[in-house]
Amino acid sequence: MVDNERGPDGGEKPPEMPLPESLERLRPGGGKSTANGAGRYAGFGIQFAVAIVVFLKVGEWLDRRFGTDPLFLYIGVFTGAGTAFYSMYRGLMADQRRAEQEQQKDKDQK
Q1: CA distances for 86 relative to 1, 12, 53, 81, 93, angstroms
Q2: What is the DSSP secondary-structure string of 44-77?
Q3: I need a surface site. Which of 16, 23, 40, 82 has the fewest CB within 10 A?
Q4: How many CB atoms lie under 10 A from the CB of residue 53?
Q5: How far apart are CA 28 and CA 48, in angstroms?
Q6: Crossing angle between the packed helical segments 34-66 and 71-109, to the nearest 10 degrees
Q7: Each residue's pLDDT tens digit in the chain (110 positions)?
Q8: Residue 33: how many CA atoms within 13 Å on its side-chain side?
Q9: Which helix (H) or strand (E) holds 80?
Q10: What is the pLDDT of residue 1?
């Protein structure tokens, strides 16, 4: 049995090191919406992949329709990647602004 004042080897327990604020949210009970944030960021990856595949398929369809073999395929892939990057950037910047506002609100309350 491990005592709260003792480490796992029976010696003195080392003091806890403070985590940077960005990692504090990952500590159990440290963040309000850790699971929600993880799901949101996983959604960015899925959205990125779906955007590329959808634009790729549209490009393939346009190539078959007009007989321009790789032209619209390339345009579709780059357009899909560009829109996905832009959407991801906007979402991450909105999250950052929200976190900064919450941080400022917490500082104002103290």
Answers
A1: 53, 51, 16, 9, 11
A2: HHHHHHHHHHHHHHHHHHHHHHHT-TTHHHHHHH
A3: 16
A4: 13
A5: 29
A6: 160
A7: 444 556 566 667 666 666 566 566 655 555 555 566 678 788 888 999 999 999 999 999 999 999 998 999 999 999 999 999 999 999 889 989 998 998 898 888 87
A8: 9
A9: helix 71-109
A10: 47
